[in-house]
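Bumping my old thread because nobody answered last time. Still need a sequence for this structure:
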């Protein structure tokens, strides 16, 4: 128990070291009041912050769907159209595992038990990522510094795109609102075979240093990659040609990449989101208001979208309360929206996925054609 507590303190210290260069304005009182109201919601209602029965049921459905679809694809599919449909379905289910099981586990929102959260977070290692590196990239850098260029690594796509007003403008960006949608499909392939290994070797996420994985975390990294490669290539190659296996992998990965990328972009890279710039290493808003004004919800009233995306259409609530199970976001959002109205804080949302698509398209076009705002 003492070793675990010391390990947790060490991780917290490292996270603070990585994130200490920027500071947010002093708490305005909004965050404390919002926290009080959300705590009251769980104290007075029938909701549980974690260990929700609906989440365990959902986990079983997603895992059965994943392995069932995989088995049919590898063992039974015969025609090209059967393979195509199954690959797309498998890509969507894989994204669902990432959005729901892995994401809640990594944020300690799945369970009150640390080992259960760790186990759920490790589902990312099985589907091709690294749960350890993802923690530093997403939990620490993205969640602390949403939409701050140079700190939020989810904004960085190299020379290929200009997502923030502070990014350099290149002539070919004028067409980014068309070609970036195609490049989104390459995200998972790049992640599987380049990003994690680059971070491991260099000890950096983008240009930000982070503590390299050691001992058990390093073992999980390589074991996870081994399991993933066995599922993607090892087992299928026993029954099918390399060309068939490779083409199937690409279709699954492109589907996964598009779904993952678009969900993030609809939440942060749209017209309604702020892209703050630090002045003297200080962000003008306090942390909670910063999270809200850099984030946009979409399709709040669509339970099917909410289920499939692991509640990530409620990104505002997720960024404010990442350690609460996403099953609760629809109820939490009512409290957040009401509190924002009372405090005069802008609560951003799109009524549908399509509205979010259009906003993202317009923002990409604007960033591609305007050198400055």
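Sorry it took so long. Here it is:
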């Amino acid at each position: 128990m003492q070793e675990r507590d010391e390990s947790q303190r060490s991780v917290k210290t490292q996270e603070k070291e990585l994130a200490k260069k920027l500071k947010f304005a002093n708490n305005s009182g909004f965050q404390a009041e919002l926290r009080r109201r959300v705590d009251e919601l769980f104290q007075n209602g029938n909701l549980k912050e974690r260990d929700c029965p609906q989440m365990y049921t959902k986990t079983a459905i997603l895992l059965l769907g994943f392995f069932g679809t995989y088995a049919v694809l590898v063992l039974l599919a015969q025609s090209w159209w059967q393979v195509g449909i199954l690959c797309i379905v498998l890509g969507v289910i894989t994204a669902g595992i990432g959005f729901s099981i892995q994401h809640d586990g990594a944020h300690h929102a799945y369970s009150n038990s640390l080992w259960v959260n760790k186990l759920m977070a490790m589902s990312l290692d099985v589907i091709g990522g690294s749960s350890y590196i993802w923690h530093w990239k997403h939990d620490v850098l993205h969640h602390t510094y949403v939409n701050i260029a140079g700190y939020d690594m989810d904004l960085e796509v190299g020379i290929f795109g200009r997502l923030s007003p502070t990014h350099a403008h290149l002539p070919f960006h004028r067409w980014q609102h068309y070609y970036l949608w195609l490049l989104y499909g390459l995200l998972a392939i790049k992640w599987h075979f380049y990003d994690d290994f680059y971070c491991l070797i260099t000890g950096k996420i983008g240009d930000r240093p982070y503590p390299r994985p050691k001992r058990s975390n390093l073992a999980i990294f390589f074991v996870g990659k081994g399991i993933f490669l066995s599922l993607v290539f090892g087992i299928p190659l026993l029954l099918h040609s390399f060309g068939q296996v490779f083409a199937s992998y690409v279709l699954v990965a492109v589907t996964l990449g598009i779904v993952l990328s678009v969900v993030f972009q609809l939440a942060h890279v749209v017209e309604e989101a702020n892209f703050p710039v630090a002045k003297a290493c200080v962000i003008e808003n306090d942390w909670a208001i910063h999270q809200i004004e850099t984030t946009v919800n979409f399709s709040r009233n669509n339970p099917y979208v909410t289920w499939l995306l692991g509640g990530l259409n409620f990104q505002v609530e997720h960024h404010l309360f990442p350690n609460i199970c996403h099953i609760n976001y629809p109820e939490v959002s009512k409290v957040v929206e009401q509190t924002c109205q009372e405090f005069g804080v802008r609560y951003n949302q799109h009524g549908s996925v399509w509205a979010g698509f259009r906003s993202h398209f317009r923002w990409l076009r604007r960033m591609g054609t305007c050198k400055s705002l």
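The chain has 16 helices and six strands. Let me know if any region looks off to you.
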